[in-house]
Each structure stands twice: as structure tokens, then as C-alpha cells.
Amino acid sequence: MQVHRIIKTITICCLFAGLEPLQGQTDSTGTDSTVYAPDSAFIPAPDSVFVAGVEDTTPAPANEPVYAKYTPPLESLSLRLINGHTTHNLYKGELEFCIQHRFGILSGGNEKFFGLDESNIRIGFDYGVRDWLTVGIGRSGMGKTINGYTKFRLVKQGKWPVSAAWLSDWAINGLKKDPVLDPWYNTHRYRYTHQLIVSRSFGNRAVIHLLPTLVHRNLVDSIQTPNDLFLLMGTARVKIVNGLNLTAEYSYMFHSLRKRLNPSAGIGVELYTGRHIFQFTFTNANSMNEPMFLTDPNGAIRNGDIRFGFNIVRRW
User: Fold this and answer.
1) Is 78-315 a CATH 1.10.150.170 domain?
2) d(C-alpha 200, C-alpha 150), whole Å
């Protein structure tokens, strides 16, 4: 009875104090032992709880990192520059997918929509086997050409005044055999390219490349045409603002054939978006494979035989 009176007294006091009972529970004596809680009970919230309508003015911890958009150095932005290779190698495990597209010549006029009615595409995959070794394979519509290459990094600028790499490319023409040729060997389809690629970066403002090149063709069009041709390529990339660059490329052949073949040349604009690289180009080169655009006939710039094109690069 004494316990019952105490509970009754607490109940009356709670009602006068504005407390509302929770669900009643019965204790071991069989008496209704109700527990009361105030209407506006305050429960302290953890620091991470968001309260609507209240601006969080708590400063970030001093050691919290501040993230900014990252743009790679010019030298390591891409494996290719318009048509030719750079000294850059993919890091071990990196994969790069590249789509290269060249339209017809601008001098085609309205009839051919200034070259946009025609197109030549190369699709390629490149992979970093080691930090110093990159391999790649691609397929081009021109000549039904399949090519594979290896690129070795020799030295890197920093300890050395320049960066250098060695490229060896093997291209196979996939067209049907020429019925005029007798005898015919499958090795007639093969072309080989070897390049020493040397680059020099000027801060992060510009980078230039020189590429002494040897191209060997197993099959040539006449006995007066040499199988081996020596060339020198030069490329440049100049930064405009972060993620936007100007590009240029030119090749010179150390043989009188250059007057008939027209050395490859081009200019372009390069855009880096963080996940993709877009390279927009104007070039007289018909192909995007080294032994073809270096030793096959290209368009005559003086006649307006210039092609608009682009490269799209995605790296993982």
C-alpha cells in the first residue's frame, strides 16, 4: 500500500508539471509503474547531424586536403601528338583507348562537303607493361592496316637535360594481294618503323620533340625506289591555359622522293578535360600509321589538300 501511494503521488505531480506518460508497464508487485518524459525532451545531436535551416559555420580541420583540378605536365599529356608519338610512356597497368579520325580534303568543296563526306578511322589500344615499356595495337581503314608497336623509355628529363624513348612499329597491309606481282609473298605486306624520340620541356609552358626515323618497306613501286628511307620529324606543344594547348608537326625526308610525296605537316588544338583528351587537327597526311604518313603520298598544302580530323583519347 505504501508503494502504491508513492507512485500515485508521483503521477499527480507529473501531470501538474506537464509531463506525458510513456506506455505503462507493470512491475513485479502488479502495480502500474508508469514512467513519464517531458514533451520537449532535449537529446544532444552528434556534430555530423544536419539541422535544416541552420548554416554550418564550423571551419574545416586544418589538415583536411583541398582538392584542385589536376592537369598533367605537357610532356606526359598523351602518347601521340597529331600523328606522331611523344616520349611519354603509360605507367604500369594503365590502358589507353584512342580513336583517330581524318576526313577528306577541304579543297573538295561543296560537292564533298569540304571533305566531311569521306573519312578514315584508326582505333587503337595502348597498355603500360612497365613504367618504362608501353605496347600498342591498332586497326586503320586505309590499307586495312593492322599495326603493333613497342616503346621503351630510355632517359627522363631531370637527371638528364632531355627525355628519350625508342619506338619500333610493325605495320601489315591487309588488302588483297596484287595479281600482277609474281611471285607474291605475304612479307610484301610488311613495313617497319624505328624512331628515336627526344623531347625537351620548358617548364610547363612548352615541349618540343625531334624524331630521327628509319622506315623500311618490303615492297616498293619501282627498282629506283629505295626500301629504306630516313626522315626527321619535329613536333611541338605550347600551353595556352591549363588544359588547352596548341600543337604542330612536320616531317622531312632525306631523299628526292619528298618532292613527289609531300612531307606530312599539321597544326592543331588540344583539350584536356580530366577524363578525355580531344585533339583537333588540320593535316595533309592521309594515314595515321607511321610508315604510311611518312613515306606514302600526302596532300599538297599549296593546293588546299588539307584534312580536318580529331583524336579522342581515354585513359584508365
Assistant:
1) no
2) 21
Name the one residue in this structure whose C-alpha cell is 501511494: 5
Q: 94 burial class (0-12, 13-18, 19+ CB within 10 angstroms)?
A: middle
Of 287, 299, 294, 246, which Cα lies nearest the Cα of 270?
246
**Half-sphere exposure (CA, 13 Å, Cβ side) for 64?**
4
Instruction: For the full predicted model, state whether its pTM sits above 0.85.
Output: no
Domain spans in the chain, listed from the N-terminal domain onward: 2-36, 78-315
Q: Which residue has the cell 604510311?
A: 292
For the segment 125-173, what is each residue's pLDDT rounded down to a tens digit? 999 999 999 999 999 888 889 999 999 999 999 888 999 999 999 999 8
221 backbone φψ class: left, alpha, beta (φ>0; ψ -120 to 50)? alpha
Kindly report, residue by residue over 243-296, the tens digit of the pLDDT: 899 999 999 989 888 888 888 999 999 998 877 889 999 999 888 888 888 988
* Three-class DSSP labels, the chain: CHHHHHHHHHHHHHHHCCEEECCCCECCCCCECCCEEECCCCCCCCCCCCCCCCCCCCCCCCCCCCCCCCCCCHHHCCCEECCEECCCCCCCCCEEEEEEEEEEEHHHCHHHHHHCCCEEEEEEEEEEEECCEEEEEEEECHHHEEEEEEEEEEECECCECCEEEEEEEEEECCCCCCCCCCCCCHHHHEEEEEEEEEEEEECCCEEEEEEEEEEEECCCCCCCCCCEEEEEEEEEEEEEECCEEEEEEEEEECCCCHHHHCCCEEEEEEEECCCEEEEEEEECCCCCCHHHHHHCCCCCHHHCCCEEEEEEEEEC
Cα 87 to chain centroid, rounded: 15
Cα separation, 136 vs 315, whole angstroms: 13
Beta-carbon count within 10 A of 146 CB:
16
Q: What whole-number distance in Å separates Cα of residue 276 and Cα of residue 256? A: 40
